[in-house]
Design a protein that fits this description.
- The protein is built from no helices and 11 strands.
- It is mainly β.
- The chain is elongated and about 75 Å long.
Length: about 170
């Protein structure tokens, strides 16, 4: 899942032309372009005690030698209330499905060197499983992801240039 607040555009390359991006991309490639040039704050409040906050901050030096961007996103929701839901173990019961999550995206660039950090966390609790069991306090979905990369681009000559990447990614699911 990705927060929509800083997405600038979505590009889709269908068919065999997408194979330019690797042998596993024979059907299509989806490229999500984010807008790192935003400077805004967004706050939303809604039903079920839901709230959402997003912060975009960016800066580029006058010489354009270095730039930074930061995106923070947080949301929480007490969830929909399900009254008189059928539970095969306890008969009729009430339940809710609260959820919350956080995103952090930080980008730093100095001349030909770029660093990227992305951290996400999501959790949904007590959702109705549709197997006839509510399993309150037992059913939850949790996901934590972090990604860090360091990129270096160098132009050896007008005809030859290269990009070098080092990245690490971790995904935890419960």
């Amino acid at each position: 899942l990705m927060a929509m607040q800083n997405i600038k555009q979505v590009e889709i390359i269908r068919g065999p032309g997408s194979a330019l991006y690797g042998s596993g991309a024979f059907a299509a490639v989806i490229n999500i372009v984010v807008d790192n040039g935003l400077n805004n704050v967004q706050v939303e409040i809604g039903e079920h005690n839901s709230s959402r906050m997003a912060l975009n901050w960016s800066f580029e030096s006058e010489s354009r030698d270095w730039s930074s961007s930061l995106f923070l996103h947080s949301f929480q929701d007490d969830g929909q209330r399900y009254e008189n839901a059928f539970d095969v173990y306890d008969g009729i019961d009430d339940t809710r499905d609260p959820k919350y999550g956080h995103d952090l995206v930080f980008n730093q660039r100095y001349r030909n060197i770029e660093g990227h950090i992305r951290v996400t966390k999501r959790r949904s609790d007590d959702f109705y499983v549709f197997t006839g069991a509510l399993v309150d306090d037992l059913s939850y979905a949790q996901q934590e992801t972090w990604f860090a990369s360091l990129n270096y681009a160098h132009e050896f000559s007008t005809a030859l240039s290269g990009k070098f990447y080092v990245h690490r990614q971790n995904l935890l699911r419960d």
